[in-house]
Amino acid sequence: NYYTISGRERRHTIGGYPDWTATDARKEARRLRRLVDEGGDPLDDIAAERAAPTMAELCDRFESEHLPRKRPSTQREYTSILEKHVRPFFGNHDKVADVTFSEVDNLHRRITAAGSPYRANRALAVVSKMFVLAERWQMREANSNPCHSVERNHESKRKRYLSGDELGRLVNALAAHPDREAVDIVRLLLLTGSRKGEVLGMRWADVNLGSGIWTKLAADVKQDTDHVVPLSAPARQLLSEIRARRTAREKVLGEYV
Fold this sequence. Notes:
two-stranded antiparallel sheet; 5 strands
């Protein structure tokens, strides 16, 4: 029995025989007494531990509050990482505040050993962002991200260019292809060097054929700022042809190229 600082009487049961001997129980009672004398509350500590947010709860909040702000492709990738790697590794009961560097490093090494070094790096980035948000959401102490100092796998930049023969065959295939819109998409990819999703999302409002500028908005690209792309003469000619055909066919230009 003990009294809290506020004067509340409480009873803490250490355990029962034979799991606890009288000697061990006395040692534990002395430890608890010192804790109470210092202003602590053993029962309150136990209750706080039980109520502490778990990794499963952090994953749920991450998916419901953070992922909707990301592009659909990013949402799919992050959800896959959570379901295949993060949730199974930490389980339903691991506490957010208790996760250590060693555990995160073990997760990263496990995914790497399975033959997915790049995937391991992506998983580490997701978990690191989760712990940044956990600190903001007061699920964990500030400046305690366990992902810091985990050594990432080396990634080689992958570059692939069409050879002269390949480019010639592609041009011939485009000339013979019946789907004019699909052909225009591929040609814009070749002429601008942009990603497929960026070309598919190109809006007329972002294209200035007079100055030869295409402004990619920050929300549509991986950078955090707008990205201005100079359009070559062939790219401007192709866009002019697309605009003329669209206007002649549908009378309305529409939002997207």
